[in-house]
Design a protein that fits this description.
Elements: H1 3-12, E1 20-21, E2 27-32, E3 35-36, E4 44-51, E5 54-65, H2 68-71, E6 83-90, E7 105-107, H3 114-124, H4 141-169, H5 174-186, H6 192-201, H7 204-208, H8 214-224, H9 235-251, H10 274-287, H11 291-297, H12 301-308, H13 314-318, E8 319-321, E9 324-325, H14 335-356, H15 360-372, H16 379-386, H17 394-408, H18 417-423
Parallel strand pairs: 5-6, 6-7
Antiparallel strand pairs: 1-2, 2-4, 3-4, 4-5, 8-9
The chain binds iron/sulfur cluster.
Amino acid sequence: MSEFFLHYIWQFQYFQKEVLKTTAGETLNIIKPGIANSDAGPDFAHAKVKIGAIDWVGNVEIHVKASEWYDHKHDRDPAYENVVLHIVWENNKPVHRSDGSQIPTLELKGLIEPQLIKSYQTLINSSLTIPCERSFVDVDEIIKHAMIDTALMSRLETKSNLIMERLHSNKGDWEETTYQLLAENFGFKINRDPFGQVAKELPYKILQKHRGQRVQIEALLFGQAGFLLAKTKDEYLTNLYNEYQFLAKKYELTPKQLSVSQWKFLRLRPANFPTIRLAQFAALVSSQRSIFSTLIELLDYEALVNFFEVDQSAYWQSHYRFGKKAKSKIAGLGLASIENIIINTLAPLLVAYGRSIEEDRLVDRALRILQKVPSEKNRITRLWQDLGYVSKNAFDSQGLIELYNNYCQRRACLNCAIGSALLKPNSR
Ligand code: SF4
């Protein structure tokens, strides 16, 4: 038995409630189970119960064994003085308040349907990848959609909180924060860290001074990334090298360079090489006066795709690396990459900004845009597809990824609407 399960049982009152008695033999009527408390203190607040002839309003505390009251030192904590009912699985010890009065106790052992306990244990002890996979099909589609919405919002809120932390460390500068987030996203999974480091050591404010001067912006980015260490026979590199020598001194950047070895090329298709991504990022930064202010005004998916459809400079359309010519023209940032940026940076950014200025329409816009982006296709979306849930767009796929990672994997079925539907006594 777990305390968490007892919380769930108490919250939804899934136990036999006719002719209840406390362990002291007094009649017990539950008028209100109270409100779950996720902070310190008793588990439920504002509960209302009738014990004998007296109505009590106060807190409810839950334990598997009554003796845990003393193990957790509640007897010395004034926050527990107003507990009007102690819910336990097993009443192995009487519990008293500091004034010596006994706390009324309800023992749940024997009051919960054995089938409910069994279903719960089957879910949380399951070795299946998605514990409810055998009964998933039985759950109403409306409940599934609602849970995916909840999971998606939770994912966006988590990402938005991280953005707010970043904003804080950037002293409230949304432009700098957006630039850093985009840089990391341009590194995708493999080169996210070095891209992030370049952006952190090369402030956006410096790049903004060179707007429209793509050579200077490339020199700054490639120089900071550690690619411009010496002149070579490659004329373009030498040109960037000279620019960087001058700019690095001007902005005092040199000691903060990365090493080329920090960049990963292995197992990447040449079109995804970090050199190409840096050139594409340079093109984007060079073409915009202020990234954040422009992005935040873009109302729909099409406008966002347009924003990111910039071609890298001519050199990087014919070279994958410095001095290495490509056989055919190298395309600009592709649609799949743009959609990845919309999903992972743009939507959370809109939510974070919307929350910070208390504008729900920005959150709605983020959700609308995600509904326009095609679904991601990965191992997790395929798992759900095998259970019959086909993700239609990125709104669904992001919700399904969150549901899988933060609910199914953690066996948090009691926090999941699908799990609640499956465990509801009359659903089995
Ligand atoms: S968390 Fe929800 S969807 Fe995942 S296994 Fe549990 S009940 Fe099923």
